[in-house]
Amino acid sequence: MLTARRTVPIRGFSPRRSFLEVTDMAVKIADIEACTGCSACTEVCPYEVLVVREEKVVVAQPEECVECGACVDECPNEVLELEEEE
């Protein structure tokens, strides 16, 4: 299956990696019950897409997500995943 690709600027990254190629993926909450509200994912997100509310992560600005996967990699409880958009 082919996915659309685009290049987007990444805020706060080094000039060598100032652009990131992304696909039609989106960050999704896979297991909200496993979320401890530790904020590891929110601290690593370069676009502040995620926030913690009432001790659980929320995808507050999905339109700002560049699907870099940093939040998925950083989450110690595997709460988040990148999922192909429909």
Per the principal axes of the C-alpha atoms, what is the gross shape?
globular
Number of domains: 1
What proportion strand?
25-35%
User: Which strands sit side by side, in order, in the main sheet?
Assistant: 1-2
Q: Averaged pLDDT, please?
A: 79
Task: Please name the defining characteristics of this protein.
86 residues; mainly beta; Alpha-Beta Plaits; two-stranded antiparallel ribbon; 2 helices; 12% helix; disordered N terminus
Describe this structure in words.
By secondary structure, the protein is mainly β. It has one domain: Alpha-Beta Plaits. The protein is built from two helices and six strands; from the N terminus they run βββαββαβ. It has helices spanning 40-44, 70-74, and strands at residues 6-9, 19-22, 25-29, 50-53, 56-59, 80-84. The protein is globular. Mean pLDDT is 79; it is low at 1-20.
Précis, in short:
The chain contains 2 helices and 6 strands. The chain has helices spanning 40-44, 70-74; strands at 6-9, 19-22, 25-29, 50-53, 56-59, 80-84. A hairpin with a 2-residue loop joins strand 4 (50-53) and strand 5 (56-59).
Sequence-ordered SSE layout with sheet pairings:
Layout (H helix, E strand, L loop, with lengths): L5 E4 L9 E4 L2 E5 L10 H5 L5 E4 L2 E4 L10 H5 L5 E5 L2
